[in-house]
Amino acid sequence: xxxxxxxxxxxxxxxxxxxxxxxxxxxxxxxxxxxxxxxxxxxxxxxxxxxxxxxxxxxxxxxxxxxxxxxxxxxxxxxxxxxxxxxxxxxxxxxxxxxxxxxxxxxxxxxxxxxxxxxxxxxxxxxxxxxxxxxxxxxxxxxxxxxxxxxxxxxxxxxxxx
Length: 162
Known about the structure:
Low-confidence stretches: none
Membrane topology: Multi-pass membrane protein
Order of helices and strands: HHHHH
Distance between the termini: 53 Å
Number of helices: 5
Subcellular location: Cell membrane
Main location: membrane
Strand content: under 5%
InterPro entries: MFS (IPR011701), MFS_dom (IPR020846), MFS_trans_sf (IPR036259)
Protein name: MFS transporter
């Protein structure tokens, strides 16, 4: 876990720079791509050529670092964009809604994962997760067709009465 923590420090230090260069949507896509790559590593023992422990460790340990880099890229981009585009009076509500939208699916996926790991090999689950996360990454990387704006204009505050 210390490798993932070190990756998170690097990801946190580079997230703002990445967002300025590629935009928040693509920064999320790159973070997801890092996590997808990291999800493939635990399943590498399915390949006959990577049966030795040394080779597996040489693949899994750097993947933990990559996952650590990807997580801050995703969340810094998400929270920064939410704060920039949400009127000041609605910041609390937007933060609460974001937490709900992120935490409920995570809770459901933990329960589903606990059930599935009892029925099938964890390596197959990791490959499945890598496929789903890769599709999400591709969606974020290819789906943003508008040119990147360096500083998005804040959303108008429609709750104020004139």
